[in-house]
Amino acid sequence: MFDKGKKNSTELGKTNRIEDGTSIIGDIVSKADFRLDGELIGNFTSQGKLVIGVTGSVKGEIVCNNADIEGVFQGKIKVLEILNIKATAQIHGEVAVGKLSIEPGADFTATCTMLANDKEVIVKNGKGAKAESEE
To answer: What integer best gives the mean pLDDT of the chain?
Structure first.
């Protein structure tokens, strides 16, 4: 009747959620995917995917594997794989990503660093610079 087996928190389909109208001041650490439709003032770290919904906002630092942003972000964000910025998004600050997708209409006012093969390729004001490597 009751499942006594342990379940992994990163199972497919498991998503933590903060609803619209909820504000959190502090840090969030999660192993699973996370959807934020409320407000976070603080830092967010996850081994999964972060979705900031249209009504969501984050002011602070984010580190995660993948992210979709439809709402407002201000601060520093590091996405190891893919960052999708939707047309309704407002991004202000510093961005470091493996891959970046920006829909037309998004407000992207940020310095962007592309992470690739243990090298960082700096992109400022839409212009690429040479890859930086330690010698």
So the answer is: 84
